[in-house]
């Protein structure tokens, strides 16, 4: 589903992409443990869409959340932690 959302994002259909990504995040959280890589990937994809929609505050907050989760799971200097914390 994230690939479908990415396709819509590439086509400029950001509202459709965001709805798909929000659904993927919610479903993933319902069935997976917090910090699971699938949730992190879905949230990162959603943050990118939020950024492209001009929803900067939401994008930054989501990246910070992802960065905090990565830091707890992987450590402060892991590339995933740094990539998501400072976007």
TrEMBL record:
What's the protein here called?
A: Kinesin light chain
Per the UniProt record, the source organism is Lepidopterella palustris CBS 459.81
Upper classification of the organism: Eukaryota, Fungi, Dikarya, Ascomycota, Pezizomycotina
Superkingdom of the source? Eukaryota
Output the Gene3D superfamilies linked to this UniProt entry: Tetratricopeptide repeat domain
């Amino acid at each position: 589903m994230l690939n479908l959302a990415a396709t819509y994002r590439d086509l400029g259909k950001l509202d459709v992409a965001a709805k798909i990504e929000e659904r993927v995040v919610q479903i993933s959280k319902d069935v997976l443990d917090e910090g699971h890589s699938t949730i992190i990937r879905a949230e990162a994809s959603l943050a990118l869409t939020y950024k492209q929609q001009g929803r900067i505050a939401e994008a930054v907050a989501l990246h910070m959340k992802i960065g905090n989760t990565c830091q707890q799971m992987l450590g402060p200097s892991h590339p995933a932690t740094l990539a998501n914390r400072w976007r």
